[in-house]
């Protein structure tokens, strides 16, 4: 176990100091440790960005130093958002409301006047979207798209 931890730490250090790691991306961690040099601030910035979900929020909302420049395809954004928020989406979808569903609606471009209907449709199809305990982000996206495509009002929002 110690060897695996050491190997992971070594790999992280090599990555953080490599030429490919000249940027920690965007997010709260990047903003907090902005301007600080060295491995520790880079690792802390990347860790904060990756573990707290703020980078996903920043990307989808265009805040925290993240840009919404249209370079990332909407299907890729949906995949990143869903993969980063699976537990929250399952919880919020089961009750038909919540922050992660609002984020999902934003990523998918659901208009404000269609959101309540969108949330209800997802809640009603929760069992087919989260069909098992080992469902993947791709499975969830497929279930969401199927739900949206089968709903006359929401059909234009499938990704």
TrEMBL record:
The organism's place on the tree of life at top rank: Bacteria
Protein name: DUF3015 domain-containing protein
Keywords attached to this entry: Signal
InterPro entries to which the protein is assigned, alphabetical: DUF3015
Species of origin: Aquisalimonas asiatica
Residues of the signal peptide: 1-21
